Amino acid sequence: MTRIGFAPGVYDLFHIGHLNILREARRHCDRLVVGVTTDDLTVRLKGKVPVIPLAERLDIVRSIRYVDEAVVESEVDKLNTWRRVGFHVIFKGDDWRGTPKWEEFERRFAKVGVEVVYFPYTRHTSSTLLSGALKMLSAHEPPEIRSAQLAEPLDQEGGHEQHVGQQQRAVHREEDVLTSQE
Known about the structure:
Elements: E1 4-9, H1 16-27, E2 31-37, H2 39-46, H3 54-62, E3 69-73, H4 78-85, E4 89-93, H5 100-111, E5 115-119, H6 127-139, H7 159-181
Parallel strand pairs: 1-2, 1-4, 2-3, 4-5
């Protein structure tokens, strides 16, 4: 019998934590199906819109060598997804272990013979941290750094040379004045 695994998630700002879950999940099943949550479901569950649109997240996940199939995940109730996909084991990060929601899923999945397997959560990297960093970066005006300013437009080229020339002549005149006063 082919053991089918299911790994639901948003998979926004795909990072090493996502890859670790999918790599490990593939080791525990013969066929790995990944559920990528819709933008609407993500807003309902997490209160925020993903940075990467659903179609792109699906394409990214489908491109991972550990994934046999990626499907749109629009169900809050994972048992409805189980009826549609027919998996034998479901995978989640261990940050969900012990939560009331997943304890309930564990009880319900046990009744239909589905195993729930948790993998270590990658604490130093998460989509939430990445999107927060992006928001902080985009919220601030970039500092004005003179050396980072753009060069003069071509139609004004040479203008700064004229300015430098004027400054040099002024210095030479000042030197001439000082020399004549000695």
